Backbone:
């Protein structure tokens, strides 16, 4: 159930409702919108007891949410959520560009990638310090040394850092370095990990699983939000099908569909979504046209020698060309592209 408060409601009235919700045995989640404040009452008890709250001071209405994802639902919050990282916004009328290598390999490689992202107006440097790999013999990442290199690149360029968390035990460590913590496709339903990052206030980039439905993606977001962290960014990164012409099928249906399901921002990763560098530019344009709030692109100074994902990584001049090509699409989408 959600309790919709009246416009310009007093904080004392909101707090009184929160206390009553908790007294009835529910967890209360306060979501502040532009027009209304909404209190989500989450729990397994009989919902009828909540209906009496409509008589409390400042309450406009009490209504059920039909979707299993309560806090992430567009029914809970009508306007798009805007997630702020420094002076950069994700969601709403803003467009963001995330770029960088699949893996942090060396200081020089990471610095050069950061310089390339900064040069074209990107706001986020993405790079993996911990890498989930299909083969146990593949490069697994530099771990904390990689995080230190990312932080150095941030200090050098001013870019925000996006990096992946694999193990709940490393949450505090990764949180101390990252501006956005990525939960990768293989961990989308690692519920222990989702609960752990839900205890943080740090923005979480949640990638769709390789074989996951949109509802399953939304329920994973709900795991994070139910712990109190509402700063969730959804990422479409391709799903596995029977097609072998490319690595994954980039499901751009997901972008407008998610926009009708949730208030959370949606970004697209056409690098993993296709696995082919020759398709990245076209699918980036399509993602923007579909309404994406940002895109994530893999780049590398020498893709032929990359430790991971070389075939889908753009060289710096290719990345610059892509950015020049997508700018008109961002302008047509009426989104603002602000640099850090």
Residues:
């Amino acid at each position: 159930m959600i309790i919709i408060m009246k416009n310009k409601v007093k904080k004392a009235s909101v707090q009184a409702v929160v206390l009553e919700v908790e007294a009835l045995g529910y967890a209360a989640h306060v979501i502040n919108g532009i027009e209304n404040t909404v209190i989500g009452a989450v729990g397994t008890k009989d919902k009828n007891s909540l209906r009496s709250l409509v008589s409390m001071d400042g309450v406009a209405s009490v209504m059920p949410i039909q979707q299993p994802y309560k806090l992430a639902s567009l029914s809970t919050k009508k306007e798009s959520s805007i997630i702020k990282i420094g002076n950069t916004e994700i969601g709403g009328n803003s467009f963001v560009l995330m770029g960088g290598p699949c893996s942090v390999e060396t200081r020089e490689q990471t610095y050069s990638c950061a310089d390339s992202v900064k040069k074209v107006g990107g706001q986020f440097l993405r790079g993996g310090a911990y890498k989930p790999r299909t083969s146990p013999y593949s490069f697994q990442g530099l771990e904390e040394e990689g995080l230190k290199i990312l932080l150095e690149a941030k200090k050098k360029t001013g870019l925000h850092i996006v990096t992946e968390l694999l193990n709940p035990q490393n949450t505090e460590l990764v949180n101390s370095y990252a501006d956005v913590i990525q939960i990768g496709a293989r961990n989308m339903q690692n519920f222990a990990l989702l609960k752990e990052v839900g205890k943080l206030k740090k923005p979480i980039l949640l990638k769709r699983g390789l074989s996951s439905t949109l509802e399953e993606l939304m329920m994973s977001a709900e795991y994070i939000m139910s712990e109190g962290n509402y700063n969730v960014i959804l990422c479409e990164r391709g799903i596995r099908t029977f097609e072998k012409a490319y690595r994954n099928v980039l499901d751009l249906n997901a972008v407008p569909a998610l926009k009708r399901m949730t208030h959370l921002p949606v970004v697209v990763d056409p690098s993993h979504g296709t696995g082919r560098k020759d398709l990245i530019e076209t699918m980036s344009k399509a993602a923007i046209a579909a309404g994406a709030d940002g895109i994530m692109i893999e780049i590398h100074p020498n893709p032929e020698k990359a430790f991971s994902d070389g075939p889908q990584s753009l060289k710096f001049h290719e990345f610059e060309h892509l950015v020049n090509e997508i700018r008109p699409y961002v302008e047509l989408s009426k989104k603002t592209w602000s640099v850090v």
In short: Residues 101 and 300 are 6 Å apart (CA to CA). The radius of gyration is 21 Å.
